[in-house]
Amino acid sequence: MQEDKKHEIPECLTEEELEGYELVYERPYTLTEKRFHYCPGCGHSTVHKLLGEVIQELGIQDKTIGVAPVGCAVFAYDYLDIDMQEAAHGRATALATGIKRVLPDRYVFTYQGDGDLAAIGTAETIHTVNRGENILIIFINNGVYGMTSGQMAPTTLPGMKTTTSPYGRDVNNVGYPLKMCELLANLPGAYYVTRQAVHTPNNVRKCKKALLNGFKYQELKKGTSFVEIVTNCPSNWKMNPVETLKFLEEEMLKYYPLGDVKVPAKE
């Protein structure tokens, strides 16, 4: 883990040269020095930045443990300067359960894609939330299997073309997309369930607030927090980044509306 690098002055600037300037942004010290390698326009980079900011602002860098499986989510280990643990495909919430029960004072979260959480990991996800495990689940939903060439995922939209549904998803043959927020919100162990996005500045701010809530609610020990983030996949949607933002706004968010699905009751 890196040392605290808050307010570190870039080597190219001196103290004198910085006089009169207002600091408006700095990279969270909870991120490593490694450059993001994600495809241009991918939402993973933005979510990583938000995670880093939230962990830094809460002052919990040395108390946070992240769990990620395979898929694009696995690269989180390279960029988040916190303790991380890799899980087998689909088993992140099961592993996070064990970590949290052994180390209840830690802030534990999973970082999973739709192919992982909503397909091979559906059982683990549902039973983790049903038990009300005191963890934060972060669910990245881009509607395809991102790392393995863009096959149809459980979240692929009706009629949406993928490498395994070249004529579009046929709901009469393979069923409808899973709406994980709505599904999990019905479980008594779910304490906080929300769906956010990071394709506009306003949505980025709302998403950061949701992640902040997810970590803070662990202190209450009242159940599972679930933050879904609807994002894009330029490479596998076969679009440029600008086109994906339009598709996300006009198509994805129609099926996956943003906002809180279940919030803590006022006491």
Textual characterization of the structure:
This protein has a single domain, classed as Rossmann fold (3-Layer(aba) Sandwich). α3 links the parallel β1 (64-68) and β2 (83-86). With 267 residues, the protein is of the alpha/beta class. The chain has a seven-stranded mixed sheet, sandwiched between helices. α2 (44-58) packs across α9 and α5 (114-120) crosses α6 (122-131). It is built from eleven helices and seven strands.
In brief:
This protein has 267 residues and is of the alpha/beta class. The protein is 36% helix and 15% strand. It is built from 11 helices and 7 strands.
Question: How many strands appear in the DSSP assignment?
Answer: 7
Strand content: 15-25%
Identify low-pLDDT runs: 1-6
How would a textbook summarize the main sheet? 7 strands, mixed
Protein structure class:
alpha/beta
CATH class: Alpha Beta
Task: Output the number of helix runs.
Answer: 11
What order do the strands of the largest sheet run in, or round the barrel if closed?
2-1-3-4-6-5-7
Topology summary:
Blueprint: H1 15-18, H2 44-58, E1 64-68, H3 76-79, E2 83-86, H4 92-102, E3 107-113, H5 114-120, H6 122-131, E4 136-141, H7 171-174, H8 180-185, E5 190-197, H9 201-216, E6 224-230, H10 234-237, H11 241-255, E7 259-262
Keywords:
267 residues, alpha/beta, Rossmann fold, seven-stranded mixed beta sheet, 11 helices, disordered N terminus
